[in-house]
Write a structure and sequence with these properties.
It is a single chain. The chain is mainly α. Helix content is 95%, strand content 0%. The protein has one domain.
Length: 93
């Protein structure tokens, strides 16, 4: 066996190794891209839910503001803010 044949064997072994690594990495990249796509779809659904919830809250507040005076709304908001602050204080103690 001369040097040329040894070089061909070494190069063909490295070529097979890199080809195998390339195939494995391609499969992994495809799997990762599919997972990213699923996450993006879930985030899009979540954004749509937030958008719908925001619209519902906006409509509810609009309906309440037609029925109640601003002073009553402020009183209710202050009541819930105080309740929230008191809960937070109790949790930290």
């Amino acid at each position: 066996m001369d040097a040329f044949q040894i070089l061909v064997i070494i190069l063909s072994a490295f070529l097979a190794l890199f080809l195998l690594l390339g195939i494995i990495l391609s499969i992994l990249f495809i799997k990762i891209s599919l997972k990213i796509k699923r996450v993006a779809v879930k985030l899009d659904d979540a954004a749509a839910n937030v958008r719908d919830t925001t619209e519902a809250v906006k409509n509810t507040v609009s309906d309440i503001s037609r029925l109640a005076s601003p002073a009553i709304i402020a009183k209710i908001v202050v009541k819930y803010v105080r309740k929230f602050v008191n809960k937070r204080r109790n949790q930290h103690e």
